[in-house]
Design goal:
The complex is a heterodimer of chains A (103) and B (393).
Chain A: H1 11-19, E1 24-25, H2 29-36, H3 45-58, E2 61-67, E3 70-75, H4 77-101
Antiparallel strand pairs in A: 1-3, 2-3
Helix pairs in contact in A: 1-2
Chain B: E1 2-5, H1 14-26, E2 29-35, E3 37-42, E4 50-54, H2 67-78, E5 81-87, E6 90-95, H3 106-140, H4 144-148, H5 151-186, H6 197-224, H7 228-251, H8 255-282, E7 289-294, E8 297-304, E9 314-320, H9 324-334, H10 345-348, E10 352-356, E11 360-364, E12 368-373, H11 380-390
Antiparallel strand pairs in B: 1-3, 2-3, 4-6, 5-6, 7-8, 8-9, 9-12, 10-11, 11-12
Classes of the chains: A alpha+beta (103), B alpha+beta (393).
Chain lengths: 103, 393
């Protein structure tokens, strides 16, 4: 997975990376994303499994522990940079929209 | 109480598969595992929700859940789907929480299914493509005559070409199928992966019929061509393959062991085939007359062995065909061994005739080519005798 494709994050990607700002077991990420998004974003297990593999391959997250089938991950520096960049981009979008959409 | 159901679903029919499992559960037959076939256990009829997913990290050699599948299953169980069993790239999940979310998005599901199905198709296209190249290479190149005058080899070539074409068409169909479904997903439609249960039964019968017809056609070609040894060898290999498949499906070894067994089996098959070929060659009596016939023509080889051991053998090969291109090919191949300037067309009254060293002759008539190996140069009378006997006009 080319890193360039991860420069703009989808909503599930964004929330998954946010949930990995602290070390977290892979299977608990779905609940965490649900909680962080106030129930708005639901990530399916298949989607999550594939994304974690891509993130790990791209160096955006790293494996911290592995107990049997259960693996824990945490975001890397590069992952934080991408997440921060996405956050800034979304902020700019909100600000741009504020001028026209809030009457 | 248990029962085994033999049913085959394609990756593109995973919803049909799920519906089948659901319908069986409604009748009290609950899916337990894959073992030879689908194993169901008798219980209370209930409404169970199943979902059959295609796990792209699975492998065609997986006979049971491998570590990656089990890891994937952990995530799914946390989301409310318990893995019942897995085989190849299929994973069968049963809903265990009312709040279970979809395992993958619609786009991901289509991508997973298409990738798995396309890979299978590509492997078959590649296999038959390579066989086709091999056969055509021999037919057009270094082994033309063994193909042209053999109905068996022509039959094999035809089968391989048809299978290649069939898989290419199926590949194109799959590509169009994928494009259509992508458009539907973009339009917000829900996709059902399957042909419907009524059509499944019809499809199963069709597939079984086609498989039987293929076996009968192959057996028929071999019987017609009197290749009884080959028929016997293929029969033995077929039995061996059936035992192998039943063993793998029953004992479900890990992928690594499965790969090892397959590799060993392929070595054994190769050794067995070579041994059979050696037996066939060693047990062959020297033939004085051999005829090969096919739909494209015939080749007759005659070896005249005299009682007098001091006499050298005289041999000839007579090629006959209604097709000019066949005779052109024969002529092209055979005339390589003749000097181009030693022409004896007039002596033979032929279209073309060449004479080589040591009384070798290559003579062409309208539908025939004669390759003659004499021990002395022929006189005009002897040439006439040969022409009369072999009806060379």
């Amino acid at each position: 997975m080319a890193r360039e494709q991860l420069q703009t994050l989808t909503e599930p990607m964004y929330y998954i990376l946010m949930s990995l700002l602290e070390e977290c077991c892979g299977v608990d990420i779905m609940e965490k994303v649900n909680a962080l998004s106030g129930g708005r974003v639901a990530v399916g297990p298949g989607t999550l499994y594939a994304m974690l593999a891509r993130f790990e391959e791209s160096g955006i997250i790293r494996l911290t522990a592995s107990e049997g089938r259960r693996k824990s991950y945490i975001i890397t520096k590069e992952g934080r940079r991408i997440l921060q960049k996405e956050y800034e981009r979304l902020k700019i979008m909100v600000e741009d929209g504020r001028k026209f959409l809030e009457f | 109480m248990k029962k085994i159901v033999f049913k085959n679903f394609q990756y593109t029919e995973c919803d049909d598969f799920a519906v089948f499992l659901r319908d069986m559960a409604a009748e009290g037959w609950h899916f337990k595992e894959w073992k030879l076939g689908l194993v169901f256990e008798k219980g209370v009829p209930s409404e169970e929700e199943y979902v059959v997913e295609v796990f792209v990290h699975g492998n065609e050699l997986d006979t049971k859940p491998e570590p990656k599948t089990e890891e994937f299953a952990e995530y799914c169980e946390a989301a409310g789907w318990r893995l019942v069993d897995a085989k190849k790239k299929f994973c069968i999940f049963k809903k265990c929480k009312e709040t279970a979310v979809s395992i993958v998005t619609a786009e991901e599901r289509l991508e997973n299914i298409t990738k798995a199905a396309m890979r299978n198709r590509a492997e078959r296209i590649f296999t038959f493509g390579m066989l086709m190249v091999l056969y055509w290479g021999q037919f057009l190149g270094w082994n033309t005559m063994n193909y042209v005058f053999s109905n068996l080899m022509l039959g094999f070539m035809l089968c391989v070409n048809c299978m290649f074409l069939y898989h290419v068409i199926r590949g194109i169909h799959l590509y169009i199928w994928n494009r259509k479904r992508k458009k539907k997903i973009l339009a917000g439609e829900k996709i059902y992966y399957g042909v419907g249960n009524k059509n499944q039964t019809r499809k199963d019968r069709l597939v079984t019929t086609i498989s039987l017809v293929e076996i009968l056609v192959l057996g028929g070609i071999l019987w017609y061509c009197k290749e009884y040894l080959l028929l016997g060898v293929l029969g033995v290999l077929g039995v061996f393959a059936a035992i192998f498949i039943v063993t793998i499906r029953t004992f479900r070894p890990s992928k690594a062991i499965h790969q090892f067994i397959r590799f060993s089996a392929s070595i054994l098959i190769t050794v067995f085939t070579i041994v059979c070929m050696m037996i066939a060659i060693w047990s062959d009596k020297p033939l004085q007359l051999e005829t090969q016939k096919s739909v494209l023509g015939s080749r007759v080889y005659h070896e005249a062995i005299y009682d007098n051991p001091n006499e050298l053998d005289r041999t000839y090969t007579l090629y006959q065909s209604e097709y000019d291109w066949v005779l052109d090919r024969v002529w092209e191949e055979m005339s390589e061994y003749f000097p181009k300037d030693n022409i004896c067309t007039e002596e033979w009254g032929a279209q073309e005739a060449l004479k080589g060293d040591n009384a070798l002759y290559l003579v062409r008539y309208e539908n025939k080519i004669l390759f003659l190996n004499e021990h002395t140069n022929l006189t005009q009378e002897q040439i006439q005798v040969v022409r009369n006997r072999l009806e060379l006009r």
